[in-house]
Amino acid sequence: INNKGGVLNRKLELIPRDTKGSADEAVRVSRELIVKEKVDFLVGTLTSAEGPAVSGVAKEEKIVFIAPIPKTDQLTAADKLHPYVFRVAANTTMEGRSTAEIVAKWPVTKIATISPDYAYGQDVTRSFVEHLKKIKPSVQIVDQQWPKLGKADYTPFINAQLAKKPEAVFSSLWGGHFVTWAKQAKPLGM
């Protein structure tokens, strides 16, 4: 784009900041980018805790915030929606319901859930459970586990779920958290 003259004859410049997965840090660096760097818009955040926090800054400062990753419904909920926030990814309702549609076709009725205890995990799990119960009333949610985001030892959560004998487990753990959980779950027989 810059080789072709940029946008409106202005070169694009990427000014990255590390939010460290923290909503407070995301707010701090967003304000810094707006005030000190005089950015024209914000793009980013990783977690569903950061997205709504930065959206609040964007609304207050009247600067566009493009959110490609945070999926929580809270980002664009009716009471939080404003002209400066743009979601470019599926939201938790879409993900939870689509997963429920798939699981409803499986020959299982006893399901457990494990999701990180913050906006994304809570929202996607709620959407999954509500929709699954609606389309397959015979389903039972036999256990729900809510580890803190970034938890390193999932063994107590896995053992608690195994004790309830689920036929399937819905997990919204993601990235390295899911890898860690899976490596710990397999030897325990999950």
Please give a handful of descriptors for the protein shown.
3-stranded parallel β-sheet, elongated, 6 strands, 6 helices, 190 residues
Explained architecture:
The protein has about 190 residues and is an alpha/beta fold. The chain is about 40% helix and about 15% strand. It is built from 6 helices and 6 strands. The chain has a 3-stranded parallel sheet, covered by helices on one side. The protein has a 3-stranded parallel sheet with strand order 5-4-6, sandwiched between helices. Helix 2 links the parallel strand 1 and strand 2. Helix 1 packs parallel to helix 2 and helix 3 packs parallel to helix 4. The longest helix has 17 residues. It is elongated, with a radius of gyration of 20 Å. The chain starts with about 20 loop residues before the first helix and ends in a 5-residue tail after the last helix. The relative contact order is 0.11.
Nearest-integer average pLDDT? 94
Structural class call reads alpha/beta
Distance between the termini: 49 Å
Radius of gyration: 20 Å
Helix content: 25-40%
Percentage of β-strand residues: 5-15%
Write the element-wise H/E pattern from the N-terminal end onward: HEHEEHEHEHEH
Compute the number of helices.
Answer: 6
Strand order of the largest sheet: 1-2-3
The coarse overall form would be elongated
Largest sheet, strands/sense/barrel: 3 strands, parallel
Low-confidence stretches: none
Beta strand count:
6
What is the fold's blueprint, element by element?
Elements: H1 23-35, E1 41-43, H2 50-61, E2 64-67, E3 85-87, H3 92-103, E4 110-114, H4 119-135, E5 140-145, H5 155-163, E6 168-171, H6 175-185
Parallel strand pairs: 1-2, 2-3, 4-5, 4-6
